[in-house]
């Protein structure tokens, strides 16, 4: 199982997928945005690998979550930081794990409040399925089907690695 | 023997220490105050966006309940609530029902029928918000926008945010509060916040008629002479002087007050060269402060205004969050009880 | 039981007869509303009351009680508040002149006395208003008030407009041998304050009443009493310094007596720390230093009497922010219990407490409170250790704002007799 989740291999998949997609779409100057915290580590790495010099953006979606009325505010919210204007840009939005799709919805809402981008490409390292919204990643490192007692989490930033836990252990 | 718990925390914190009302800084620890400042930092970033609005309080109703009119403070609370996507209702009670003899309890009962989620309250009587928080329906958050001479916690916290932005922190800071401390809810909250956040020294600079009895017990030193009081200061916070103070034989004249306790360039030069100048507004130029100082390079008065919106967004969302957590807790408690 | 020729014998427990120490109850015989015999004289009777485990004491006398009648009835009336008094062990209460209308005429005094004799559970002694309408400006018809049955004259909790008027009030009252009762407060210094001017008021931004508002008035009143020769009673002292001045005045031979409200002996300004408007009282609760000095004043006999300063209110009057609420506690049912807590903590002797609740205040209004042969059978029987729970359900007063609520207190009242008749009994 661990072998399947070798981080370098997944990053390679993600990098190659993105290169291909950018070429297909003819996007020359994409801007990277990572979702805190795992997505930010990935944006840092992928930015270097894809040769994007422009600093990447960091998104804290705490203010945009749709479950405020159930769980309240994240007490350790940090400011989002987008060091570029999103208006008319081609954005690569990066997160570590996609499941329900709610985080991505919140992130897209937040991005639009900075300005209307030309396009958004969604890249996730791991896709766990179990979607609750019609949102799909354009590029993904690996699709996994976990049993109900399993959890997966990206740990980092040094060394960046994937942790797979079974509550049954 | 005390009759009740003197700490207001049973009222403003949930069982697990989250804010559910924001009434006073008394009893709030450094960690919570820092959380408020950190959350406000995130809201400052929101204020710099093209769309300065987040959906946190979407569908919630915030009622600005001002028993004492203050367009300025009410406007910043209104803007803060709107930037959190709440619906806002402004009620200027000073001109409506209570002047017709309706009691505060009756006014509240009527307002609760409107199914609001939060009351932002300003009142001329110290402790009025405590009374409201004690009698309000569970789930409704009360935010204190100034009560009598007691507290103005959002003003003090926006001042702390401003200080942190300019000084990096509070350790070792020497801060003076100058002017009418006796009547000031702002000063009481500022002194409390500065002590909790670790400032090295808080000085109260005023004539004896404008200082409350045993003011040192609040956590400050007293200095009658402003020139001595300005020495080594990192921050000087001016207070507003109400015109009516001349009437109760508290001061001889505005002129004499300005000469002795007004902040001009000459007195400011006695402080550290990077000392910042603050004022809660609205400023009486030539009474508390000289224009050259108010508009000068050391003045951070306009930063205070910007920070005011962010602090109010932080406090409102945290209190609403605490109320949410408490309701979930109760649901799960009754759920367990039912099982 | 009415004041008939039926006889009652109370046996067991301990007896406090109005002075000295408590002793084993030698047996009391009550006949015709009087104490007919103590000890051997207390022979067989028609009925028996077993007071084993209890204290038998003279019924308490309250120098400051607001019965709220005449008035609009929302806050209480003579029937409800005298019933509450009986529940607290009181058999005589002085009715404050602060009624509506004010008791400044013989007509109002008669009204109070008639209501008390038809509906009152205990004896009611009216205090007349020393100034017309309690306005502090014009003299009231004091001779008429005395003739109608007022036992003293005073200005309630309100002050007199200036020292000249105060001097004339005293001189005129002295003419008729009337005792004057004043709550010492310099109005200019108290201004619009409502809390002790100390650390709690400073922290909470409450408007303070400085101690000097009381002490300056005490000094002024003592000097004027000395000059006019009037018998002065200082009501509801709150400051350590007042006790000191009182003791000195006594040494100089000035005819002055004083009381303190029980809540001043128990609570301090800390009770306001949560903006609890229940503890908005006048004079305000002061510091721990003051509280200790007041207790010492009672212990040493400088302060003659402990009063309830019972001020029942409708809930709307107390359910408001501190400054907007009306001052006063619904206290008369808890006085003994709070006193017993002081006894338990070793701050006061039980005998001194009972003296300050009975014979002490009685002598201020030139009466006697004692359990002795030939005296009216005004007495109370209570268990020191027995607990009761004051709450909105158990308080008999219309005012539900007792000083302690929903916490058990010692001092369970078993029986209160007024002229041998049952004014209150826990047997129902």
From TrEMBL, chain A:
Transferase as UniProt keyword: yes
Keyword Glycosyltransferase: yes
Top-rank EC class of the record's enzyme: transferase
EC annotation from Swiss-Prot or TrEMBL: 2.4.2.9
Pfam families on file: Pribosyltran
Spans through the membrane: none
Gene source species: Marinobacter oulmenensis
CDD domains found in the cross-reference section: PRTases_typeI (cd06223)
Keywords of this entry: Glycosyltransferase, Transferase
Residue span(s) of domain Phosphoribosyltransferase: 6-140
Protein name in the entry: Pyrimidine operon attenuation protein/uracil phosphoribosyltransferase
Domain of life: Bacteria
GO molecular function per UniProt: uracil phosphoribosyltransferase activity
TrEMBL record, chain B:
GO molecular function term, any single one: aspartate carbamoyltransferase activity
Keywords assigned by UniProt, alphabetized: Pyrimidine biosynthesis, Transferase
Residue numbers binding L-aspartate: 100, 185, 240
One GO BP: 'de novo' UMP biosynthetic process
Catalytic activity as recorded in UniProt: carbamoyl phosphate + L-aspartate = N-carbamoyl-L-aspartate + phosphate + H(+)
Residues annotated to bind carbamoyl phosphate: 72-73, 122, 152, 155, 281-282
Entry-linked InterPro entries: Asp/Orn_carbamoyltranf_P-bd, Asp/Orn_carbamoylTrfase, Asp/Orn_carbamoylTrfase_sf, Asp_carbamoyltransf, Asp_carbamoyltransf_Asp/Orn-bd
Domain Aspartate/ornithine carbamoyltransferase carbamoyl-P binding: 20-165
Entry's family note: Belongs to the aspartate/ornithine carbamoyltransferase superfamily. ATCase family.
Descriptive protein name: Aspartate carbamoyltransferase
Gene: pyrB
From TrEMBL, chain C:
CDD domains in UniProt: DHOase_IIa
Protein's UniProt keywords contain Hydrolase: yes
Gene Ontology molecular function terms on file: allantoinase activity; dihydroorotase activity; metal ion binding
The enzyme's E.C. designation: 3.5.2.3
Keyword terms, alphabetized: Hydrolase, Pyrimidine biosynthesis
Cellular component aspect of the GO annotation: cytoplasm
Domain of life the protein comes from: Bacteria
Gene Ontology biological-process entries: purine nucleobase catabolic process; pyrimidine nucleotide biosynthetic process
Pfam family, one: DHOase
Ranges in coiled-coil conformation: none
Residues of the Dihydroorotase catalytic domain: 54-239
Protein name: Dihydroorotase
Organism this protein belongs to: Marinobacter oulmenensis
């Amino acid at each position: 199982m661990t072998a399947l989740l070798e981080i370098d291999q997944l990053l390679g998949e993600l990098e190659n997928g993105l290169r291909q997609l950018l070429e297909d779409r003819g996007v020359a100057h994409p801007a990277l945005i990572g979702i805190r915290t795992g997505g930010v580590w990935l944006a840092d790495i992928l930015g270097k690998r894809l040769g994007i010099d422009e600093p990447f953006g960091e998104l804290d979606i705490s203010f945009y979550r749709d479950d405020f009325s159930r769980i309240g505010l994240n007490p350790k919210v940090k400011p989002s930081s987008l060091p570029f204007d999103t208006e008319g840009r081609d954005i690569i939005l990066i997160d570590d794990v996609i499941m329900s799709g709610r985080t991505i919805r919140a992130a897209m809402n937040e991005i639009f409040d900075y300005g209307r981008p030309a396009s958004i490409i969604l890249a996730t390292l791991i896709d766990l399925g179990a979607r609750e919204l019609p949102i799909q990643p354009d590029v993904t490192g690996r699709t996994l089907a976990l049993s109900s007692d399993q959890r997966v989490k990206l740990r980092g930033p040094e060394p960046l690695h994937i942790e797979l836990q079974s509550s049954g252990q | 023997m005390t009759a009740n718990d003197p700490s207001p925390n049973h009222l403003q914190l949930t069982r697990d220490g989250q804010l559910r009302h924001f009434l006073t800084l008394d009893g709030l620890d450094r960690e919570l105050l820092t959380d408020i400042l950190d959350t406000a930092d995130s809201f400052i970033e929101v204020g710099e966006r093209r769309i300065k609005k987040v959906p946190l309080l979407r569908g919630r109703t915030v009622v600005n309940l001002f028993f004492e009119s203050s367009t300025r403070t009410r406007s910043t609370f209104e803007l803060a609530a709107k930037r959190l996507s709440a619906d806002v209702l402004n009620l200027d009670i000073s001109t409506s029902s209570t002047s017709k003899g309706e009691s505060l309890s009756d006014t509240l009962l009527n307002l609760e029928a409107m199914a609001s989620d939060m009351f932002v309250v300003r009142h001329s009587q110290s402790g009025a918000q405590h009374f409201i928080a004690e009698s309000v329906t569970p789930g409704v958050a009360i935010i204190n926008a100034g009560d009598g001479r007691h507290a103005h916690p959002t003003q003090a916290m926006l001042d702390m945010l401003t200080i942190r932005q300019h000084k990096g922190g509070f350790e070792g800071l020497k801060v003076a509060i100058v002017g009418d401390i006796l009547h000031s809810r702002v000063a009481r909250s500022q002194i409390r916040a500065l002590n909790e956040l670790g400032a090295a020294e808080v000085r109260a600079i005023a004539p004896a008629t404008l200082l409350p009895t045993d003011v040192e017990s609040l956590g400050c030193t007293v200095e009658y002479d402003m020139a001595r009081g300005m020495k080594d200061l990192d921050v000087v916070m001016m207070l507003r002087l109400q015109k009516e103070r001349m009437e109760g034989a508290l001061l001889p004249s505005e002129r004499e007050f300005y000469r002795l306790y007004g902040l001009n360039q000459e007195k400011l030069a006695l402080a550290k060269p990077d000392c910042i100048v603050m004022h809660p507004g609205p400023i009486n130029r030539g009474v508390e402060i000289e224009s050259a100082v108010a508009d000068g390079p050391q003045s951070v008065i306009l930063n205070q205004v910007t920070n005011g919106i962010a602090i109010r967004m932080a406090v409102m969302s945290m209190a609403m969050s605490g109320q949410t957590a408490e309701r979930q807790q109760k649901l799960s408690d009754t759920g367990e009880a039912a099982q | 039981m009415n004041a008939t020729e039926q006889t009652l014998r109370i046996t067991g427990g301990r007896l406090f007869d109005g002075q000295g120490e408590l002793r084993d109850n030698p047996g009391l015989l009550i006949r015709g509303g009087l104490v007919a015999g103590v000890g051997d004289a207390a022979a067989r009777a028609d009925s028996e009351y077993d007071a084993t485990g209890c204290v038998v004491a003279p019924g308490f006398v309250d120098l400051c009680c607001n019965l709220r009648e005449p008035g609009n009835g929302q806050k209480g009336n003579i029937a409800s508040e005298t019933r509450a008094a009986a529940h607290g062990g009181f058999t005589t209460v002085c009715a404050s002149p602060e009624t509506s209308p004010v008791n400044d005429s013989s007509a109002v005094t008669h009204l109070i006395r008639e209501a008390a004799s038809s509906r009152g559970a205990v004896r009611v002694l009216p205090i007349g208003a020393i100034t017309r309408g309690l306005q502090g400006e014009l003299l009231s018809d004091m001779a008429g008030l005395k003739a109608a049955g007022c036992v003293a004259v005073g200005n309630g909790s309100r002050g007199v407009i200036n020292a000249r008027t105060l001097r004339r009030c005293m001189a005129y009252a002295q003419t008729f041998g009337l005792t004057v009762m004043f709550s010492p407060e310099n109005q200019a210094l108290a201004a619009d304050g409502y809390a002790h001017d100390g650390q709690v008021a400073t922290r909470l931004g409450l408007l303070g009443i400085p101690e000097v508002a009381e002490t300056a008035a005490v000094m002024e009143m003592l000097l004027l009493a000395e000059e006019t020769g009037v018998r002065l009673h200082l009501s509801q002292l709150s400051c350590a310094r007042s006790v000191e001045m009182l003791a000195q005045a006594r040494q100089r031979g000035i005819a002055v007596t004083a009381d303190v409200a029980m809540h001043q002996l128990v609570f301090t300004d800390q009770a306001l720390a949560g903006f609890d408007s229940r503890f908005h009282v006048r004079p305000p609760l002061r510091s721990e230093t003051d509280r200790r000095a007041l207790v010492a004043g009672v212990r040493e006999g400088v302060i003659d009497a402990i009063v309830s300063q019972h001020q029942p209110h409708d809930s709307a009057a107390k359910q408001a922010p501190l400054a907007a609420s009306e001052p006063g506690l619904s206290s008369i049912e808890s006085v003994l219990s709070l006193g017993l807590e002081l006894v338990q903590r070793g701050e006061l002797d039980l005998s001194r407490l009972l003296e300050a609740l009975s014979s002490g205040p009685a002598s201020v209004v030139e009466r006697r409170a004692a359990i002795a042969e030939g005296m009216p059978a005004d007495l109370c029987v209570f268990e020191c250790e027995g607990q009761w729970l004051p709450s909105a359900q158990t308080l008999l007063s219309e005012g539900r704002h007792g000083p302690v609520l929903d916490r058990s207190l010692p001092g369970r009242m078993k029986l209160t007799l007024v002229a041998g008749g049952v004014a209150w009994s826990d047997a129902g």
